[in-house]
Amino acid sequence: MSEVKFFYGENIPLEMHKVRIVQKLNLLPVEHRQKAITEAGNNTFLLKNRDVFMDMLTDSGVNAMSDKQMGAMMVADDSYAGSETFTRLEQKIVEIFNKKFFLPAHQGRACENIISQVFIKPGQIVPMNYHFTTTKAHIMLNGGSVLEIPLDEALNVNSSFPFKGNMDVEKLKMAVEKHGPGNIAFVRLEAGANLIGGQPFSLENMQEVRQVCEAFGIMIVLDASLLADNLYFIKTREEQCRDMSIREITRALSELSDIIYFSARKLGNARGGGICTNDETLYMKMRELVPLYEGFLTYGGMSVREMEAIAVGLDETMDENMINQGPQFIAFMTEELLKKGVPVVTPPGGLGCHLDAMRFVEHIPQNEYPAGALAAALYIASGIRGMERGTMSEQRDEDGNEPFSDMELVRLAVPRRVFTLSQIKYALDRICWLYENRKLIGGLKFVSEPKILRFFFGRLEALSDWQTKLVKKFKEDIGDSL
After folding, report:
1. What's the whole-number mean pLDDT along residues 293-322?
2. Which of 16-30, 213-227, 250-264 has the lowest mean pLDDT?
3. pLDDT tens digits, residue range 138-171?
4. Within a 10 A sphere around the Cβ of 51, how many other Cβ atoms?
5. Quick one: which of 294, 301, 353, 299 has its CA closest to 328?
6. Interatomic CA distance for residues 116 and 137, integer angstroms
7. Under 8 Å CB-to-CB from 170, ≥6 apart: which residues?
8. Tens digit of pLDDT for each residue in 369-380?
9. How far apart are CA 392 and CA 262, in angstroms?
10. How many CB atoms lie within 10 A of CB 45?
11. When you count CB atoms within 10 A of the terminal residue's CB, does the N or C end of the chain come out lower?
12. Catalytic amino acids?
């Protein structure tokens, strides 16, 4: 892993790319930002992009593509069946993952739909290192349930443990013994547990999980959407892997998996997804659902131009100086906020910098959605759109009870090769100002609450006039806009 050291000045991450195409951004005056978040129902998903200055909602589908990806899109074969574009993508999957069978799909949750429909029977459980929102929804819609068995350390927001995404192997054994192998649909590992701060698992942990699954005849499904970050952390944090190449680590993880699926909106920096396996029986069970839900087997609901970009993007993911960009910028953000006493998830993970709303706005109870309130406040103070990853991202049980999330986080995603260091520093400045004025932030309540994935569509309102007070304080300290 190459590193650049500065002789003078601060220790900062270095962009390993140059900017050749730019897109204009807008930074609205603070009163306009307050109006925009109110009209969006205090839900950052419902903000219009024209009202957003820095979009840190997600890295899904918004990572910058390379010149090689853009060039590859010009040679796409748009044949409905038998496309050469599909063949090139399939060959790249074989090269990188050593999986013979590949099924294209339009994105990761489409893969989850197919896998859940095929392999989950009513009453079965799916043990996993931690759930993701759409994964859990698909499992439940097909009559299954999620059993989270992360290490206890995973839920410790402040930690130095390098692999908080590890599965607790002893708890996995106990779960199999309790429920029986036949009642477990599969074991799912998420490379970079999203909802606990993009925390990675180790190669050693996956090897241990594999031993348990082999002993009981249970298959392993790997969600590789955030694999790029996880590869970086394995390479830099796991002693046994320091001398392995990124390709070798990828192959090692792949060999431990029965099925791999991914969202190319994250892995590959384009828009699409896919499922791959070496087991022809598993492949044939899933194959018939692709034409039903996605499209023919050689495009699977994707644009062939995007498929060409994915093939190149997967290849670029094997470049150590590409996959280090996100984690290094996230680590910089995290460390700078720690210096100012701002509560964040540690150690720095992948995907984004995560604010700990439990401590940031500790005066707001969980039934008033502290992470959602903090995300709304941050938009008002900065024009930055983050994502609530807390109780709002859960859903009520069958009796209408509100399950509180293990963590209340605001995720500030860092799309790859998108933001400059000065923009990151702007974000840090506004977060620190907000932390100093955190007592002004109040809670929220739902006024429109969907039953499924409510964080996408739900609308909330402030429980008091705290947003007006926040705007007043902002104008006193900073001014109307910049």
Report:
1. 95
2. 16-30
3. 999 999 999 999 999 999 999 999 999 999 999 9
4. 19
5. 353
6. 10
7. none
8. 999 999 999 999
9. 25
10. 16
11. C
12. 80, 132-133, 223, 266, 389, 455
For every residue of the chain, which 3-state class applies, written as one string? Answer: CCCCCCCCCCCCCCCCCCCCCCCCCCCCCHHHHHHHHHHCCCCHHHCCHHHCCEECCCCCCCCCCCHHHHHHHHHCCCCCCCCHHHHHHHHHHHHHHCCCEEEEECCHHHHHHHHHHHHCCCCCEEEECCCCHHHHHHHHHCCCEEEECECHHHHCCECCCCCCCCECHHHHHHHHHHHCHHHECCEEEECCEHHHCCECCCHHHHHHHHHHHHHHCCCEEEECCCHHHHHHHHHHHCHHHCCCCHHHHHHHHHHCCCEEEEECCCCCCCCCEEEEECCHHHHHHHHCHHHHHCCCCCCCCCCHHHHHHHHHHHHHHCCHHHHCHHHHHHHHHHHHHHHCCCCECECCCCCEEEEEHHHHCCCCCHHHCHHHHHHHHHHHHHCEECEEECHHHCCCCCCCCCCCCCCCEEEEECCCCCCCHHHHHHHHHHHHHHHHCHHHCCCEEEEECCCCCHHHHCEEEECCCHHHHHHHHHHHHCCCCC
Q: Taking 60 as the threshold, does the pLDDT of residue 482 lie above it? A: no
68: how many CB neighbours lie within 10 A of its CB?
A: 12
Cα(67)–Cα(446) distance, integer angstroms: 44
Q: Determine the average pLDDT of the residues in 196-205.
A: 96
Which range (20-24, 271-275, 418-422, 432-436) has the least confidence?
20-24
State the average pLDDT for the chain.
95
- Going from the C-alpha of 134 to that of each of 107, 137, 198, 400, 421, the distances in angstroms are 12, 5, 16, 20, 32
Percent of the chain with pLDDT over 70: 98
**C-beta neighbour count of 303 within 10 angstroms:** 17
Least confident of 161-165, 450-454, 461-465: 450-454
Provide the CB-side half-sphere exposure for 310 (13 A, CA).
Answer: 33
Q: Tens of pLDDT along 384-402?
A: 999 999 999 988 888 889 9
